[in-house]
Predict the 3D structure of the following.
Amino acid sequence: MMNDIAISCNNITKTYPMYNDPKDRFKEALHPFRKIYHKDFYALKDVTFEVKKGETVGIIGQNGAGKSTLLKIITGVLTPTSGSIQVNGIISSILELGTGFNSELTGIENIYVNSSLMGVSEEAVDKKLERIIAFADIGDHINQPVRGYSSGMFARLAFAIAISIDPDILIVDEALAVGDMNFQAKCMTAMKRIQDNGTTILFVSHDISSVKSLCERGVYIKKGSVHAVGDAGHVAELYMADMRMQHNADNQFTGVEPAAAVELVNATTQNKMDELAIEFDKKVSLFRHGTGEAKITYVEVLDINDSLVEEAEFNQQVRVKIHIKSYVNKKISVNFHLLDDKKINIVTCNFLQAGTKLYAVKPGDCLIVEYVLNLPLQHNVYSLNTMITSPIIPDINIEYIDVVPDSYSFKIAKRPNSTLWSKVDLFPKLTISKL
């Protein structure tokens, strides 16, 4: 195993026997000719990937995809049916809430029990006990049996123990989802700290923004197999694209209210756009998705002189122009997300935010939707994800007609005179009063 690899999974497969009838288990066990009555269910199939030391990797996928099974195999809780796994370093993990806890013991007693299961001596726990209790922050409940703990208390205590042993590898499986907002923020800060200290982290979450911000790489598990491995932002976008397509499939009925006002494209303008539209489609066709009832044909970001923006000045005003063509009668909104280099959504613009009603399109309609906005953003590279949507239930559920990731990319220059340390400058007004 290479010295810079923390975890290596090679063709990991995990199967479980599935019986149509519980009696078939006994028939199979007692059959004189070993007749097979079951079918194999593949929880994981030929999963292969590596995690380098000091790397933070997000594991994403739908419920039932095999994420938790994979983590249990990595931690040694489960044995793979076939394949091999190599782990280089001490693992601390937070898997299912309550794992490693004795329900009859108090929180403090469980700190010692849980730590001992991870190979930590009682003397070492003594030195860290106050720090663990302070981080868990569950008050007098720490002296009570954990059988009365809420899921949030379990999460607090489990996370406090997991990070206290200074592991080489930290594995977190959805544990933060049950905590309150303050606890989640504290956990993310702690994970950033141990990340900076060189700890390898495997992070499972349905919070895609957290995966994008925390992880360098992502692994997308789909139906037990590795669907994609690579840059966390890119892998997360693939996952979100699949979720949108499934969302469309699950919602077959559409319908909504009112009309709107958008520029209708004349024939001369449309002819000029045809060549650009062909090139645009070549560029984005690999990852675009949706029902196809309307299509984004071109996207441009222009300055006040109608020049394409490659690098905008800080707080520069720009015009985002989204060209579309409709193939159906439908009421739509044309929207965009502005994402940073980690694919974290910084700004969203849609008809609702702009105070515009849904626009009723007809087959053959060609439109230009234009948003005008300023960009008081941090020096970085940004991209636009553009989309055409149609509400199913207003403000709750939408149908994705066309979604085009990375429709347009540009840079924003540094703020003059002083560095902008946050993502966005809100231009706050400051008042100081002497009492």
Summary: The domain at 5-241 is CATH 3.40.50.300 (Rossmann fold). The radius of gyration is 26 Å. The first strand starts at residue 5 and ends at 18. The chain has a mean pLDDT of 87.
